[in-house]
Amino acid sequence: MGRESVKCSGSLEPSKSDLAVLQYGIPPNKLPKCAGSYIRRDTSVQMSAGELRAPHTSLMPKIVTVAASKGGVGKSTLAYELAVLLDAPLVDLDWDEGGVTRKWGYRHENRVHAPMIEALAAGRTPTVLNGRGRKPDLLPGHPDFAERQPAPEDIATALSKWAGEWGRPFVVVDTHPGAATAGHGAMLAAHVVVVPVVLRTNELNALEGMLKEVADYPLLLIPNLVPRRAPAAEIRRLRRLVETYQAEVGPLVRDCRALGTRKRHAAVVAEQPAAAVYRDFVASMREVAGAVRRYISD
Ligand SMILES: Nc1ncnc2c1ncn2[C@@H]1O[C@H](COP(=O)(O)OP(=O)(O)OP(=O)(O)O)[C@@H](O)[C@H]1O
Ligand SMILES: [Mg+2]
Q: What's the whole-number mean pLDDT along residues 258-277?
């Protein structure tokens, strides 16, 4: 859809085309106006002699970082499902209890080692836990990581090295909300930064703040938790942000109520057959995975 054909209705129930408006893909990296605390992406590339970022070669593993300024927008949910769909190891750079590590069924309280912290300290590549296809293979997070994060450049270098040694086509990285050091490093290393976007006022305020700082990163915005009656004003606001910062928008993921109380460790996309309540969610996640592949291959 061309930009000139974009329209947003004022009704509370935007048409399908209003939602599609969000998905007309604008080439990223047009506005390298990075301010604030993030390292300019192009600077980081020079700094690391081109080792940190895309495009590399088509055979190099691609790093998919899921990040957002705001908490609770669906980073861990998307990261978990994407990792299974992309057959990718999942690195948990969050340290809070409500993330992918706990969801996977890993309890740091029962373990002696903190694999990621120890690997970073020793400069070696950690082994991921086998998720056997139903869960992603996981490099678990740890609460101590909050205080023991290396500098962003070091995280980026480590992730790129691990990805190369794991030898898988993709690596997915889940992050703590905001510009935390480790998450920043994962964004530096990323071939695509998947940003879940919730169509609510505070969440869009946070998104705007993020876009101001990282518009020169390879961002793919994924509207998440989109209600049946998506709010027209918020859609218009997102469209303005997308135009201003020339970010790309991928497929949207609707609010899937059953997710909020689901307790299984298996990824939803790995369930065969998918329960009826998850069918739309699974279909959306497959589209998101397709958008990630396309974004990286473009
Ligand atoms: N599409 C969706 N439909 C319904 N619920 C969702 C959807 N995406 C995420 N959720 C729910 O929203 C809550 C927050 O999701 P999640 O933990 O993935 O967010 P997060 O951004 O990783 O949060 P944090 O910033 O705390 O790490 C969870 O209860 C999750 O089940
Ligand atoms: Mg999370």
A: 96
Residue 51 lies in a domain: no
Per the structure, the complete domain to which residue 223 belongs is given by 63-297
Please count the structural domains in the chain: 1
116-140 pLDDT tens trace: 999 999 999 999 999 999 999 999 9
Q: Which residue has the higher pLDDT, 262 or 14?
A: 262
Indicate whether 17 belongs to any domain.
Answer: no
Q: Lowest mean pLDDT of 39-43, 138-142, 160-164, 195-199, name the range.
A: 39-43
With tokens 């396309």, the residue in question is 294
Ligand 1 centroid, distance to 243 Cα (angstroms): 26
Nearest CA to 139 among 169, 167, 110, 166? 166
Q: Which amino acid is at 116?
A: M
User: Cβ(208) to ligand 1 under 6 A?
Assistant: no
261 lines ligand 1 (CB under 6 A): no
CATH of the domain at 146: 3.40.50.300
Ligand having the closest approach to the CA of 198:
1
Q: Exposure of 20 by Cβ count < 10 A (0-12 exposed, 13-18 middle, 19+ buried)?
A: middle
Does residue 231 form part of some domain? Answer: yes
Q: What is the pLDDT of residues 33-51, one digit of tens each?
A: 233 456 656 544 333 333 4
Question: Which of residues 42 and 98 earns the better pLDDT score?
Answer: 98
Instruction: Indicate the pLDDT class of residue 179, thresholds 50, 70 and 90.
Output: confident
Report yes or no: 94 and 142 within 8 Å, Cβ to Cβ: no
- Ligand 1 pocket residue status of 103, Cβ below 6 Å: no
From the CA of 72, how far away is ligand 1's center (Å)? 5
Query: Is 182 a domain residue?
Result: yes
